Amino acid sequence: MELQIKDTFSKELPSDPIAENTRRQVSEATHSYVNPRIPSQPNLIHASKEMVKAIGLDEAAIKSKDFLDVFSGLKIYPKTKPYAMAYAGHQFGNWAGQLGDGRAINLFEVEENNKRWAIQLKGSGETPYSRQGDGLAVLRSSIREYLCSEAMHHLGVPTTRALSLMLSGDDVLRDMLYNGNADYEKGAIVARVAPTFIRFGNFELFAARNDIKNLKKLTNYTLKYFYPELGKPSKETYIELFETVTQRTLDMIIHWQRVGFVHGVMNTDNMSILGLTIDYGPYGWLEDFDFGWTPNTTDKQNKRYRFGNQPNIGLWNLLQLANALYPLIEEAEPIEAILNQYQVDFEKQSLQMMRSKLGLQVELEEDAKLLANFEDCMLLSETDMTIAFRLLANYKKDHPENGIEIIENAFYKPEELTKDKLMQWKVWFKAYDQRLQKETITDSERQKNMNAVNPKYVLRNYMAQLAIDKADEGDYGLVDELFQVLKKPYDEQLEQEKWFAKRPEWARHKVGCSMLSCSS
């Protein structure tokens, strides 16, 4: 197994001089060298052929002992030096100080087809940044991360990727619900892939410590490898960097809102400097359309990271990044202008995104009201967001009386639709029909456009849980089945129709199917 190793982060940025792997505060360093914990009996469950190819390997490599050894952490690839990254962050709005890679270890960087890929193992043991944790991961959270990062990519959402999913052969103690009932679970390791895993928190760490020298080094490194088009480092370039990161973050969140994805833990240490979805913990897809829903048990009371608040949190997090970069810019006005523009752009782009979901191409002033009224209708009774939008594409002009019938499979409790609620839906379909008369495209063209932005298949929590339950029994067939289905989320895939279904009633309050904890 031969890879084109091109390590830059660990070679060009300052490393922690202390070699021992003990929990500690690490200063004036972007990373600490640490080897993965050796798994007792690694076993490959699944690998993404697409990502295997992207890093420069052929399909045959997946079955090799080298692949198993390197991506389980059993052996270190020749002439490389694994490390954990140092960063800080705001967690649930509060400054948490130094955090860092507590259960991720970066193996190396690969350059293939002029693309750079950093590869890290999640769940491969403790690091100086593990705090009270053991640095390990369990099978259930690893399956969720592995499936979701690849599913998100195929939905068109900017994301980190996954290369492989392995069992470690070791049991891991976890208190799944934080209620004092800890139990042993199967340990697992995910090999994660991204151009870089640098987060907002990497910059926050140096800024908080007033370590401007290393803040500058990190920022210049980020420019050199990931934003070279912005030019050489200067005050103007730093402003442009912040503007570009702001735009990318906004783009990512608009995509989240489009597909009904809720991240669950939008702490600043979980925000990628490339605008990628990073750190799949207690995430979820909206099933019942609800702006107030969060999948995170830790966030149940305040709902800071609820679906409807994600755009605001994106802005709040960008403000923290702005504060971190401020010592290099020393001028508030351009930063404020960029943050204000985020709000303007969000309104504009969000409206445009919602137009596309309803199949509207012509831009009319009345559209915002039509969209808001559709959301109000979905809030009348438990309505499945993914199914409602997907079925709406089947609507034919001039037949508003058929509207409710077309989307009726999206309702969880159709019996709750009283006369008044049905009337509200009927009024909306009449307005929608009148609006469609102002479009020039045919019904079939509109259907095609709508089906290209409204997915049919998303990774619902109950689906992931079914795969987890099977995998616990040693059957990984469902992991692969879901992996394949989610590669084509916009296709009809009639043979997979069973996954185009509302959350079953048994999953409403089942652990892992609705709310999840951060350790999930």
Automatic annotation (TrEMBL):
Record carries keyword Transferase: yes
UniProt-annotated binding residues for ATP: G100, G102, R103, K122, D134, G135, R192, R199, D279
Assigned EC number: 2.7.7.-, 2.7.7.108
Origin superkingdom: Bacteria
Reactions accelerated catalytically: L-histidyl-[protein] + UTP = N(tele)-(5'-uridylyl)-L-histidyl-[protein] + diphosphate; L-tyrosyl-[protein] + UTP = O-(5'-uridylyl)-L-tyrosyl-[protein] + diphosphate; L-tyrosyl-[protein] + ATP = O-(5'-adenylyl)-L-tyrosyl-[protein] + diphosphate; L-seryl-[protein] + UTP = O-(5'-uridylyl)-L-seryl-[protein] + diphosphate
Cofactor(s) named in the record: Mg(2+); Mn(2+)
Coiled-coil features, chain-numbered ranges: none
Amino-acid positions noted as binding Mg(2+) in the UniProt annotation, renumbered to this chain: N270, D279
HAMAP family, sorted: SelO
Protein name: Protein nucleotidyltransferase YdiU
Native source species: Winogradskyella thalassocola
